[in-house]
Amino acid sequence: MSTRKAPGRPLVVKLGGSLAGSMELKAWLEVLSRDGGGRAVVVPGGGPFADQVRQAQQDLGFDDATAHHLAILAMEQFGRVLAALSPGLILADSRRAIEQALADGKVPVWLAVPMTLGRPEIAESWDVTSDSLAAWLAGAIDARRLVLVKAAAPAAAPVTAGELARQGLVDPAFPGFQASSGVEAFCLGPGQQDCLKLALQSDGAPGGSMVCRS
């Protein structure tokens, strides 16, 4: 993995929690570890950890604000797993930590709680999940692009953010967060690791399905 500092703005790569336990996860992590140093910021999904929060809320009946906090902690749990599985990935819980990791040629894995809890623009609701938080982070750190890595990709390209939400591939709040971020978004699915690799190596667009804001 390269240790040089990459020029320009980073790529935010959201690794869907649905990849947990998938044979694809290793391949995505290999690309990020080998080619993402200094270039990519990883946003982990909640995966099975968030599923446990949903079930616990149904069983125990606690409020959405508590569930929101626990779901972001679930993202952090999956993030810690990703960092443990792949060399070059390092945990980062602030903008300064993200910038330092990138400067050191590492791939920061975002721990979202410190930067997101209590922010008025982030609703404490299941309508806001890791997809929306990835778009929010992309805007907050002035990323050049956002890449959503999914266990399933949309059939059409380009596709609107609203259509992704209607298909259930992103959360209901994502279209608004993408629009607010001002960042181009792309959606990649199974077998499209080379698209991400080329984007990291060349600073170009990753291909796959471009997510239009309208």
Describe the protein.
The chain has helices at 24-35, 47-60, 64-85, 95-103, 113-116, 130-140, 161-167, 174-181, 193-202; strands at 11-15, 40-44, 89-92, 107-110, 145-149, 159-160, 184-188, 209-212. The protein has 214 residues and is α/β, with parallel strands linked by helices. α2 packs antiparallel against α3 and α6 (130-140) packs parallel to α8. The chain starts with 10 loop residues before the first strand and ends with a strand.
**Unreliable residue stretches:** 1-6
Shape descriptor: globular
Q: Can you summarize the main beta sheet?
A: 6 strands, mixed
- Report helical residue fraction: 40-55%
Strand content: 15-25%
Count of helical segments?
Answer: 9
Question: How are the strands ordered across the major sheet?
Answer: 2-1-5-7-8-6
The separation of the N and C termini measures 37 Å
C-alpha Rg (nearest Å): 16 Å
Q: What's the CATH topology label?
A: Carbamate kinase
Rounded average pLDDT: 91
**Total domains:** 1
Secondary-structure arrangement, i.e. CATH architecture: 3-Layer(aba) Sandwich
CATH class group = Alpha Beta
Work out the number of β strands. Answer: 8
* Helix vs. strand class: alpha/beta
**CATH H-level name... which superfamily?**
Acetylglutamate kinase-like
Listing every helix as H and every strand as E from the N terminus to the C terminus, the arrangement reads: EHEHHEHEHHEEHHEHE
